Amino acid sequence: MNNIPEKKIERLSLYRRRLMSESGSRSYIFSHELAGLTNSNAAQVRRDLMMIGYEGTPKKGYKVELLIKYIGVFLDPVEKQNVVIVGAGNLGHALLTFFKNRQPKLCLVAAFDIDPVKIGKDIGGTICHDLADLPRIIKEKNVKIGVISSTENAAAEIADIMINAGIKSIINFTCFPLSAPKGVFIEQIDITASFEKAAFFSKE
Amino acid sequence: MNNIPEKKIERLSLYRRRLMSESGSRSYIFSHELAGLTNSNAAQVRRDLMMIGYEGTPKKGYKVELLIKYIGVFLDPVEKQNVVIVGAGNLGHALLTFFKNRQPKLCLVAAFDIDPVKIGKDIGGTICHDLADLPRIIKEKNVKIGVISSTENAAAEIADIMINAGIKSIINFTCFPLSAPKGVFIEQIDITASFEKAAFFSKE
Hints:
2 copies of one chain form a homodimer. With 204 residues, the first copy, chain A, is α/β, with parallel strands linked by helices.
């Protein structure tokens, strides 16, 4: 899967969500219409969709319901994927509740923290464990996806533990720039940088 | 401010946070060291810091505390900037609590929703108002930064209201691809796409 560009996966994810919004109001869609809904262009849309093996007809375009299914077959894990999240502070808590019931193929199986007050508690429907149990639980539950919402100083160590225990994808919400070995996918989401950019560009 | 590349602002934001982590343990830092802490390279670091008007010495490098200050003068608003957030669901709620006390120069002044159950309530320390009051409050409080954490279908309309009322920067947490008029900064943070990418690249 690693030779497929990240941007393509991002676009497919976006196509699907825009298609889901549209599915109530139309049965077919043309590539230029889908492009309009996603700030893309028709040629790009056609190339992306050709890759997943579904071609529309020149006359009617793509069948919306079918296209949603094809994208799902391509993007989604075949079986539910287990996810862990390390760092059960405000953002961690938010992510735990935000993703509950939103991602049918992703299952948050455990949260982790080092704060004794949080350990053993139910946080947004997920039990918070001691960070020391992270490698064991990753292996036991065959977890492939890890979310880091700890302090930035802990991020590198947590990522190492995750990768050594078998995690293949990390979503890093700290500003610490993780570098990953080959075969591990890292996604950085630096919300603080986004707010600082917004503040900068709002200056007159 | 609009001719300064976004990536440069992102890097400065990252430099500052990494410098703040380091400030307890060292007084000076060389460009190659700061580059190492931020997955950058020394030439890039020097170019970025030259722009903000602070040059280190070849012998000792940059003074950490001074560099943090210089970056702040360049990046931060002179006075507190007011921020509003529209959509007080799980993510909105999370953002409200997450940013409390984290951004000394940003002040969350109001949240908005259309859900009568939420309107008038205190959510993470911020009062939730009726969406109908958005333009009035933006103008009254001279708000320049807006956060959208609504449903994707409402995003375009909310962005229009924000921009018409005077907002200059929007952070959009929905997947709806907003396009902005000249002079308005839009930052897209599509958390769902990040999770879908993580799931895809974790497939074996």
